[in-house]
Fold this protein.
Amino acid sequence: MRKVFILALVFIVSLSCCACADEVKIGSCIYTFNDAFMLRFRNAMADESPKLGAELTLADSKNDQTTQDAQVDEFIAAGVKALIINPVNRMDVQTMVDKARAADIPIVFINREPMPEVLASYHKAYYVGAKPEESGTQSGQLIADYFHEHPEADKNHDGKIQFVMLRGENGHQDMIARSRYSVLALKNAGYEPVEIAGAIANWEKLQAMNIMNAFIMSIGAENIEAVLANNDEMALGAVEALKANDYNKGNPEMYIPVVGVDANASALDAMNAGEMLGTVLNDADNQGIAAVRLAEAVASGRDIGTIGYEVTDGKYVWIPYQKITKGE
Ligand code: GAL
Ligand code: CA
């Protein structure tokens, strides 16, 4: 009897050891840790991993593709069973896909979309993200709705919307499509948008603030009727510049509607304080959860149909955006 008990104990102990050894190690590179939206994304992945029995290691690629390539080499050498990559340069990822293929491990790209042919080059390459045209359209609609409710927002009564556009990083799919589709949404709502000033501010609040200050100096805040920013950080930079010029501080005569994308906490605060019109939820939680579930499922040889998110064309997980305005 005693012997049976000991044997059973040995069996249980060895079982639990197997479970430890089986813990799927995932290596993830983030283009920079210095990005408010990607912080939410990282947290979502870190929260989900232990629930799946996966061990996630996050690396800061410090906005340098060479650094990131070296991190990928280190992860593979350390024996990770899956990679989750937020590329520094989404056009420069074929090499790491080839490395993942050589190691026979899945590679899930997030937030910065590689070209379709790169994903097609390896059957375990995937992309988890959100469709930027959706967020562009929704942010344009927020401005259109505002003009609909506030005809006086057309300050110079010319029937057109004179707007400032603050763009994200050059070449980023979100910068390209959000810029285009936000303007298109205004046109589709029957307005005539006119870009009186625009610049790339690389997703950064400080850059956007300086650029907006310069625009206010050269154009005059009274001639700006709306600000479309490709993300919240840049929208908040614009808000800072406006506030420094006594705009968006509560006086309805001195207000310019500003919209962003992401729905970061700081933007929601600004919106609730009446400094910013609205934003679009970029759902970091669901993108993060989907990314680790996909990586873990493929690494464990499980069907990707089990992850709880639709995998389009066997390659893409698309998480929807959602408009956010005050009081909703
Ligand atoms: C976008 C997001 C930006 C920035 C960028 C980084 O989706 O809206 O705030 O995080 O990704 O690639
Ligand atoms: Ca006008």
